[in-house]
Design a protein that fits this description.
The chain has one domain (12-148): Phosphoribosyl-AMP cyclohydrolase (Ubiquitin-like (UB roll), Roll). The protein is 14% helix and 29% strand. It has helices at 12-17, 51-60, 144-148, and strands at residues 31-37, 43-49, 64-67, 72-75, 84-91, 97-104, 123-125, 131-133. The model has no long low-confidence stretch (mean pLDDT 92).
């Protein structure tokens, strides 16, 4: 990688059909990263990357993110052992989102709450018009207290 990390954003045609990675980071310097299981295609999580996190991910083959709540770099699985090994990195047509296809080490879970995927509940509309979340659609893979302790 060069000092500038990524190519300057060019024309629409260059972004959509060119061969240079020119990610469009938002006003906070972040880009959304959608993460799926490389084998099953299951949606695991959505995170955010800044330029350095994207660079680290490309260079190491392991997923890095920018934690908006902690304002620091976060290597997925650094504490839990649930390291995301990146099989493939894709970007969308205008390069304002990243898609990581990963395999998850350790117990195979992605969610810090203990589920394989962070998307374990459905949004539902009751007959009375109330919007609720369903009970989890799967069982927990692990107890977060065993991995992270109590807070």
């Amino acid at each position: 990688m060069t000092d500038t990390l990524f190519a300057e954003r060019g024309s629409k045609a260059e972004l959509e059909t060119g061969h240079k990675l020119s990610p469009k980071f938002d006003k906070d310097g972040l880009i959304a990263a959608v993460v799926t299981d490389a084998v099953t295609g299951d949606l695991l999580m959505v995170g955010y990357m800044n330029a350095e996190a994207l660079k680290r991910t490309i260079e190491t083959g392991e997923a890095w993110y920018w934690s908006r709540s902690r304002q620091e770099y976060w290597k997925k699985g650094g504490t839990s052992g649930q390291v995301q090994k990146v099989s493939e990195i894709l970007t969308d047509c205008d390069q304002d989102a990243i898609w990581l296809k990963v395999t998850v080490e350790g117990n195979g879970a992605t969610c810090h709450v203990g589920y394989k995927s962070c998307f374990y509940r459905k949004v539902e509309l009751s007959d009375a018009g109330e919007i609720t979340l369903s009970d989890p659609t799967s069982d927990r893979v692990y107890d977060p207290k065993d991995v992270y302790g109590t807070k």
